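thread: overnight batch results

M.L. [08:02]
morning all. the overnight job finished for the chain we discussed friday. pasting input first so we're all looking at the same thing
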Amino acid sequence: MEMTETKHLLRVVSASLLVVACAGADEIVARVGDKEIPLTEFEAAARKLRKTGYDHIEVVDQAAKLELLDGVIARELLILEGRKRGIDRDPTIADEILKTEQRALMSQLYEEEAVQKEYPHTDADLLAFFAEYQYDSEVFSRHIVCDSLDQALEVLTALKSGVGFESLVDSYSIEHIQNRYGPGGWVGWFKTGELYEELRVPLSTMPLGQFYPEPIKTPLGYHVFGLKARRPVDFEAAREWLVKSLRTQRRADDMERYVVDLRRRYNLVAHREAFPVLRSIRPETKTLADSDLAVFTWRGGRLTVGDYLALLVKHRARNPAGLDSAQLYSAADNLAGREIMKTEARKLGLDRNKEVQQKVESKRAELLVKWLYHTEAKRSALTEISGDDVRAFYDQNLDLFTRDDGKVTDFSFIRDNIHTLMRNQAETRAMDEFIARLRETYKDQIEIYADVLALAFAEERTE
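M.L. [08:03]
and the structure it wrote out:
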């Protein structure tokens, strides 16, 4: 959600709240329906609000706390209304919630079953890691990354004929790669071990100041590249980074070992006869005669051709039309592996884990709020803003468009900006009116505990 939308959603509206003094409320600052808002949760939400639509608050006195709590309650009212309407049962939203649950389950499974809480190390461990993963050297190179081998070969031919590297970047390098790298294709200093594996040997061995004699393919495309400099990395200067990287690598190794063992325990088996059918799937494919054909089976489950197609339709599987045999096998294998992990996580009861449930509910709330914003605020603000309306706004607010030198910015230069501003203002008004209606509808379900609210941000007063 864009920042402007967040400001509109959480902006305070002029509506009275029922304030109930309730000593001994166990640090609950407010209730909205069945939702209790603990003091710590309010403080965390309020700090975020002060960075967005409430950045005008300088002193957090009781009035400011009420204003911030008003914004928190506005969001809870949107969630309450969204649940009442059953918006979270909408197929698209339900699928997003399901994906969040699945990611949370797998993450929790790794944390509880695969990785260790601590990964102690010695200097010898760091030094061995430093050398083994080629973090002990850095290279400074420049790249043109092409969509095809033919284009890359054209670039090499042009370079050999004396054409400047910089002049070829705009014509041949993939646009998003140009934006990612610096001017002229320079990528700056990179540790050798951080490079794509295909580039490590060439950039570790090629002469300085030259171009590699053939294109190298990576997941980005076909690289034509030159090496400007190479240097060793100081171990002590990199120590802190190495400690974090070693821990990350050891966690990744433990995760991989766990997944291999889990697949073995579930007896994951590939059925090669299904892969030609998978390869026949095209973007326009809706149904298949062999949809029940098993691609992978395991103890208690299976992945069929039809399952793969259903995931593809939801953009949760890779399109076979763009994959070679090895890539297609890997894509299907990953889907089967994820199903096994979800099965194991539920078997261990991780779907009842508090952290997993919190992640799911947080995503549900985010989607409900976003949906209501788009359907209520944006739909209510769709009234056409005419050119005359925009001109009238300009004429009535010339002071807003007057520069420091006293000259007024010409209307033609800012017409579109004014139109956008007026539309945003209409959305804000519509959202304010909608939340005001919700406050009235749910007024008997809103409670604020003023004595607990008074305790908020106590640590800031003592600093």
